[in-house]
Amino acid sequence: KQEVTQIPAALSVPEGENLVLNCSFTDSAIYNLQWFRQDPGKGLTSLLLIQSSQREQTSGRLNASLDKSSGRSTLYIAASQPGDSATYLCAVKADSNYQLIWGAGTKLIIKP
Amino acid sequence: NAGVTQTPKFQVLKTGQSMTLQCAQDMNHNSMYWYRQDPGMGLRLIYYSASEGTTDKGEVPNGYNVSRLNKREFSLRLESAAPSQTSVYFCASSERQGLNEKLFFGSGTQLSVL
Distance from B84 to chain A by nearest Cα, in Å? Predict the structure, then answer.
């Protein structure tokens, strides 16, 4: 059974730092992996989607990488800003049906 | 720019009461989903609907029913609420493009069952 883990559960860093969020999964047979952002009291917003054949995807200051063989993905945030404070979740599509398997998220706080 | 709209935002129920969570999307998406989010856990799929007129069980369907009323609306009903159903509920929609689909989420319903 596919399991997705995000460690640490919470992270606090000073503004301006580059940082990496981690996502690990137990079964390398995935179709894609997505990163989402969740703000308090709001829904989730899709940030990046990496297909199984890809190694990374970039959007602005965000870069997500995927290493299927090791069961890992990282979300790199460059030059962090207080507005980046949110919970970041990763999810894998483990088979051809509609189900995503979700990590519990990392709560990120960027201190001004 | 409404996207996915959920109502209500907050609800408190007593054990045994029933209620329906409403969800509507204005993006003409075929697929719609209901998830629940509990502290320290990832989102879990309750039910989904691949298209109007079809619904399927997800990972945790027990205690819930759904209705895909039309292409826009997908409702979630709790017939007899239990404290274990205290959670934050999210509705989402997507337009599937092969296996790569982008999900759009509502802002959630925080439900407490006493």
Answer: 18
